[in-house]
Write the structure tokens for this entry.
Amino acid sequence: MSREPAIQQILEQLHVSRILSELVREPVVATNVKDHQEFRSYAVDLVARLSGRTSSAVTREATDPATHKIEKLNIVARTPISYDEKELLQLMYQHLLSQGLAKSAETLRQEANLPLQIHKSPTPNKASLSANSCVGSAPMSGLLSPSVCTSTPSSTPSSSSSCAQSSSSSSVSLEAMVTQFLRNQHRQCVDPISVLPPMSLLQRHTCPVAKRWSYAPRNIAASVLRKQYIPPHGGRDGRTRARRLVNSRIRPLRTFRDEDSELSCCMFTENATKLLCGTHNGELKIFDVNTAELEQSWGGAERSIAHIQMCEKDTHRLLLASTAESSKLWRWTPEYDLPSVLYELEEISCSMFSSTGDFLLGNSVSASSAVLVDASTGSVVRSFEDSFHQHYKTNRACFSPSNDLIVNDGVLWDARMGRCIYRFDKLSNFGAASFHPAGLELIINSAVWDLHTFKLLRTVQSLDQRQVTWNSLGDVCYGLANQDEKTRNNIDMTVAVIDTVNYSDIAILEIERTVLHVAVDPTDSYLAIVESDQCSLQMDWYCRLYEIGRKRPTEADSDLEDEYSDSEEEDDDDD
């Protein structure tokens, strides 16, 4: 299967070579020696196919404790080496002088037009090329240059004869020795590059590092100062660094709680002044974001509400609440305090609006299909069901940002024609899918797929078994761990903050309580997290508001807000 280009590309993105190299070196039980040898042979063949090198070179790398540097060594092996030949002649001239061969040295100097009066031998490279070295005696991965030895005056006759025999047995040239020597120096660079300028024999080689003067400074004070004359972000990567700095600082602000009910999910309204929360007993509650006071409450469903969403439509709002077995749609007009029920969708759960609010998309409770519903009438427009069921856990159908694509159970569908476009490879049992707001990528569990080529771009370990919530700009996402009722004893009480420009980790938010739901306000200034304290004797379910861009207070801080202090005191009393 590794001969297939598509499968080979997926295996490379999953870093199979590195994983197999580590497994080959694992300690082996005496009774499993034969099985390990067979596994090792197959593993070496697979790594050789993925890397395009011979099995012998892969075997040396797999048994080498520095196998995590395989990619770096591959770059070094493919780098063409060049050097200044006059520097080599200069080293030969100095060596002849040190051996007392002044006439030969003078002849070489005149013919090569070397500079006069060279008294010092250049730095470390001459010492490395001197007679007490053994160049290429321990070649590293991927290099097939011959082993070359030169004997020293203190060497024994036997060692000198062995070196002479090894030299005569293979074609050795001065150019090969110098090239091997320079390649060994290039291998020691932290970040080797594949295209090099001519290397110097007189100075120690280091890969050139670009001085990016156009980039924004890392210091926040210098970055703010530089924005005045290089707007708007102070240089290249200024926006990225500012985004990472802001989203790495999140502090609790206030707590929303109702003594008579247990909160299960939440969302912000369009103007970010109200917080709408669903409860486990099927009620919907509206809190004021600034005061945390309960303003309205009404019965919404008969079961625990798992998801709520609001959409602006003409002069009114549409409010959608989903439970594990049904979904209900309300119409909310400014003239009425409480919304009126439009209809209820039985046997359809996990519903969501399209970006225009014209359609609803949900999952059928009795089957693994996705159902497209007309939001104005409540009638089913189309059903999306694949004959080859992948049976993902935590599966939930979702729209693309342009509403023309739908993903469900690892299958990409055309929403207009109802035909299957592509079936993604199942790399995990968890299938929480989400489109990138730019519409070019699809995230299924920890795998990021390209929607143009359907190739695996990368795997993000921080998103493994997590549901994704996006901010309004789409450059940051929050990973919420999937909560399974069967695994309550092993619950991840963290929220991962990911930079979705390059899918690097920004921060891991330690909640210290069970996280049920996450919502981001439209201004990306606040983060609402529904938490539950299940460790205490009396379970407490509430929603806590976090402020994005401010560090958590410490004991030395004197400007703690009164609201935050009050919320902390309430939590301590409940504990």
